[in-house]
Write a structure and sequence with these properties.
Blueprint: E1 3-8, E2 11-18, E3 21-27, H1 30-47, H2 58-71, H3 78-91, H4 101-111, H5 117-136, H6 143-158, H7 174-184, H8 194-201, H9 208-213, E4 219-220, E5 225-229, E6 239-243, E7 246-247, E8 250-251, H10 252-257, H11 271-285, H12 294-305, H13 310-317, H14 323-330, H15 335-345
Antiparallel strand pairs: 1-2, 2-3, 4-5, 5-6, 7-8
Helix pairs in contact: 3-5, 4-6, 5-6, 7-8, 7-11
Length: 364
């Protein structure tokens, strides 16, 4: 039968001995130890044996994942390559069998010291992709580890250390954006021109990954446009020509094409690195709950609130769906904008008495 022994502070050893099978494992809480022991006993009673354990280290799994996917002709972005490299560097030495919710939460808390919530969730999601590949393609017993990472992401989301997947309604002011931009210029040791990135993304609703992947040859000076490789549900090699118009008196084409031509690309940076530096800049500037992707929503909100047509907004954003994304996700209308609009239209004063007549609402 199972026995639970406390071996040290926050260390509980569960020992299962049943039908000639003996197994032990250490946990941080008694409840975790008891849960594991109950599951193990059930496996022994049903099958007569314990389920197999995952073998090897995290690094060995990721190395196999990368090698076999590359051999199959499947490649991914620089961001995924970078995140897998950091996983191997930071926790690659850990055996797969000890990877659980607790170890993933600890790792997420360490990541949160230098990365924002989205960056933490992104890194853990890439870890889970490798684990799911090992389970489905190679048949490794990794379901417990997959569940552990998923539970850790949820727990870290509750602590606001990882993205929670909920729709955001953060209203950005130009003052906040300027504060972060100014702070980015004082960050020592940074080779990233974060201020220039902010100047582009506050006006042009591109994703940071799209901006960083633009090559010089993608820019067309005659039409002031750029070819961008964008996400597509069915076409992995989908390219779109995107206009770079003048917005609020600023030429977005010049913001990109006018960069130093000695650079390999206009913005030769990794998406994850830019996100990390941006998060640090927001903390140093004292601006709370400000994510890099919020600039995309800010740009779209400005365009939509100034009467820019939805089809043209969709073309700039790269969205194929109709107005749902625009209306519910990226167009964030603040109370100040409502008050200003009412005042501009003269609806903030009582123009004439109401007659009681019902006038149908005209939807534009």
């Amino acid at each position: 039968m199972a026995s639970i022994v406390q071996t040290a502070r926050e260390r509980y050893q569960a020992i299962v001995q049943l039908q000639g099978v003996r197994k032990k494992k250490t946990f941080r809480t008694r409840k975790q130890a008891e849960t594991w022991a109950t599951v193990m006993e059930g496996e022994i009673l049903m099958k007569g044996i314990l389920p197999p354990e995952a073998k090897g280290t995290i690094k060995e799994l990721i190395d196999t994942y990368e090698r076999e996917m590359a051999a199959a002709g499947i490649h991914w972005s620089d961001t995924k390559t970078y995140n897998l490299f950091k996983l191997k560097e930071q926790i690659g030495h850990k055996p797969l069998k000890i990877l659980n919710r607790v170890t993933c939460i600890d790792y997420g808390k360490q990541l949160a010291k230098t990365r924002g919530p989205n960056g933490v969730k992104e890194r853990l999601n890439y870890l889970n992709k490798a684990l799911k590949w090992g389970l489905t393609v190679k048949g490794y017993p990794l379901q417990e580890q997959i569940d552990g990472v998923a539970h850790a992401i949820t727990a870290l989301g509750m602590l606001r250390l990882a993205g929670d997947g909920k729709a955001r309604n953060r209203f950005l002011s130009e003052v906040e954006i300027d504060k972060v931009k100014e702070q980015s210029g004082t960050m020592r040791g940074s080779s990233i021109d974060l201020a220039a990135i902010i100047d582009v993304l506050r006006l042009l609703p591109l994703r940071i990954g799209e901006l960083c992947q633009i090559e010089w040859e993608n820019l067309n000076p005659h039409t002031e446009s750029v070819r961008i490789k964008r996400k597509h549900p069915t076409n992995p090699d989908f390219w779109q020509v995107v206009a770079l118009p003048k917005i609020a008196g600023v030429s977005t084409y010049q913001l990109i094409a006018g960069r130093d031509r000695r650079l390999a690309r206009p913005f030769p940076y990794l998406q994850s690195t830019v996100s990390s530096y941006f998060w640090l800049a927001t903390r140093m500037a004292g601006v709370e709950d400000f994510r890099l992707h919020d600039l995309r929503a800010h740009a779209i909100t400005w365009l939509a609130s100034n009467g820019y047509p939805k089809p043209l907004c969709k073309a700039l954003m790269g969205h194929s769906r109709d107005s749902k994304v625009l209306d519910e996700v990226y167009t964030r209308i603040s109370p100040d904008m409502i008050h200003a609009s009412m005042e501009e239209m003269g609806l903030d004063v009582k123009a004439k008495p109401r007659t009681g007549e019902v006038v149908p609402l005209k939807v534009v």
